[in-house]
Each structure stands twice: as structure tokens, then as C-alpha cells.
Amino acid sequence: MTLTIQPINFDIADRLTQYINKKTRRYDKILPASAEMEVRMTVVKPETNLNKETRIRIIGMGAEMFAQKTCDTFEQGIDECLEALDRQIEKQKEK
Known about the structure:
Layout: E1 2-8, H1 14-24, H2 27-30, E2 36-43, E3 52-60, E4 63-71, H3 74-94
Parallel strand pairs: 1-2
Antiparallel strand pairs: 2-3, 3-4
């Protein structure tokens, strides 16, 4: 699986990159080697509590899966997106 991380309008910290790599590592076993995962993170303006938008897109398994969440932290957004994608992957496997 190919993982692409795209921070938009901010500089990503090494800690956040490590967090994403750790959380997505298990998808190497679930998804085929030709699958692509794209993580896009944006700081939405104006500055409010819920201003971190996370989008994760997976292309593979014969379909495209997508999740988008706006949360207080990128870590929370990543966790919620991955939970949504887990449900989509299960549905795709059942087909």
C-alpha cells in the first residue's frame, strides 16, 4: 500500500507523521499492495475549536473509499476517519 500525507496550509510535525504511519500500518495487511491511501489535513479558517479537517481516501479493492471529519485535533480526525473507513472496507469485502 502506498501512503501519501498532504498537510495543507501548515507545516506537519514529525510526531503527527509518526502517528499517521502507526495508525495506518495495519492496512498493509488488509489492503492489496497496489492500493493507495491519501491523507489530507487542512486547518480551516477562521480559527475555532473545530478547525482541523482530515480527509482520507483509499483507492483499491475495486473501489474508492472516502472519509472526512472536522475535529479539534488532527489525531482525533484521523481516528474517526479510519473508523469510518473500516466500516466501508468491511462492506466492500462482503460484496
